[in-house]
Amino acid sequence: MRIEFTFSRGPDYFSTIMVPGNVLRTRPLWVTGWFGVVAGLALAVLLGGELRALGVGAGLVLAGAALLLVRTWLIRADRVPESFLSSRRWLLTDEYVESRTDLTVARHYWAGFRAAAILDHLYMLFCDRGPMLDVPREPLTAEQDEQFAAFLRGRGLLGAQR
After folding, report:
1. Same domain, 54 and 103
2. What's the helix, strand, coil split of the chain in %, to 5?
3. 67 and 114 co-located in one domain
4. Chain Cα centroid distance, residue 86
5. Least confident of 20-24, 49-53, 141-145, 149-153
6. How far apart are CA 71 and CA 29, in angstroms?
7. Is the pTM of this model over 0.70?
8. E strand or H helix that includes residue 51
9. Which domain holds residue 125?
10. Residue 124 DSSP SS3
11. How far is CA 57 from CA 28, 66, 71, 72, in A?
12. pLDDT tens per residue across span 59-116
């Protein structure tokens, strides 16, 4: 097998990977924010006749809403470095997968991978140690896509334990 292609990832490519992690990472802000909103509304309703209760309730609602806005900003603000968006040349062979830019070369031999998964827009390759590697599917022709999937199946990587 020998598949070569060039691909530039845009910010949207990484947001599909990063946003789910950011959602989990910022969950405490979501819980605290909604607690503040609900507690503030409950306080204002239950003790609605008292001016102090209305003030404290409104303060809790505003603080909770502010936390929810900060969470939204944090989820959207995480960006990858510009170097991640540069054009990358890929080479998939029977021996290794190589990713090359004008500044870097990364070559990973198949023996170092323990599993693979096919997602909508990428192949996720799981290493024995260290980070995962994602190979974009978008630039592949239908024939190349099937050839690469068959190669991964033949190596026992698809469906293997991660």
Report:
1. no
2. 50, 25, 25
3. no
4. 18
5. 20-24
6. 6
7. no
8. helix 51-77
9. 86-154
10. strand
11. 21, 14, 21, 23
12. 999 999 999 999 888 877 666 667 677 889 999 999 999 999 988 899 999 999 999 9
Contact 86, 10 (CB under 8 A): no
SS3 assignment, position 80: coil
The separation between CA 12 and the C-alpha centre of its own chain, rounded to angstroms, equals 10
CA distance 5 to 123: 14
Strand boundaries in 72-121, DSSP class E: 87-93, 96-100, 105-109, 113-118
Tokens for 30, please give them: 């979501």
Residue 67 tokens, joined: 């936390």
Distance CA 93, CA 82 (A): 28
Q: Are strands 2-8 and 113-118 parallel, antiparallel or unpaired?
A: unpaired
- Both 64 and 95 in one domain: the answer is no
Sorted by sequence, the CB contacts under 8 Å of residue 35 that are 6+ apart come out as 64
